[in-house]
Every structure is written in C-alpha cells, then in structure tokens.
Amino acid sequence: MTHIADVETQHDTRHGGPFDRGSADSYYGRRRNPHYYVGGTGHSKPIMELTADELDAYHAGYDFNELLGERKSYD
C-alpha cells in the first residue's frame, strides 16, 4: 500500500501543482486532463504543456486518489 508520506516525498503536493490537480480530477470524477497552476488553483493561467516530471506527478496524483477511492458526493 502506498502511504501519503511516501507520496509527499516523491512529488510536490502543493495546492495547484501537478500532483494536486491530478488528485482533484480523480476526486471530482473528471477524466485525466494533465495541467497545473503556477500559483494556487484558479489564481493563474493553467499550464497545459507539462514536462515529463510534471506529467509523472499529475498521473501519480490521479492514481493515488483512485487507490484511495475518495470521491466528491453530489448528493
């Protein structure tokens, strides 16, 4: 099992970063759409062209939330 402490040491988990955006996309039931923000989410233009490391972080965030199974409840 992957532990959050292990993930945090491998990826920048700051709000708006690639890992955070991947986990948020999964949490809200969105399809993968690799992106991140230089500032906090919504406080800067989204960056859509990611480096290999940023892309890895985005997918790691998405996969980690999928593993946790956390989802937004719309009820």
Would you kindly provide a written description of the structure presented here, covering whatever features stand out?
- The protein has a two-stranded antiparallel ribbon.
- The mean pLDDT is 90.
- It is built from three helices and two strands.
- The chain has one domain.
- Helix content is 45%, strand content 5%.
- With 75 residues, it is mainly alpha-helical.
- The termini are far apart.
Secondary structure layout plus pairing:
Elements: H1 4-10, H2 18-27, E1 36-37, E2 46-47, H3 52-68
Antiparallel strand pairs: 1-2
Helix pairs in contact: 2-3
Brief descriptors of the model:
75 residues; globular; 45% helix; two-stranded antiparallel sheet; mainly alpha
Give the biggest sheet: 2 strands, antiparallel
- Gross morphology is globular
Number of domains: 1
Please write the string of helix (H) and strand (E) elements. Answer: HHEEH
Q: Roughly how many Å is the radius of gyration?
A: 12 Å
Number of strands: 2
Q: Largest sheet, order of strands side by side? A: 1-2
Count of helix runs: 3
Structural class: mainly alpha
| Contiguous uncertain segments of 5+ residues | none
Percentage of residues in DSSP E strands = 5-15%
Note the gap between the termini.
Answer: 30 Å
The overall average pLDDT, rounded, is 90
Helix content: 40-55%
In a nutshell, what does this entry contain?
The protein is mostly helical.
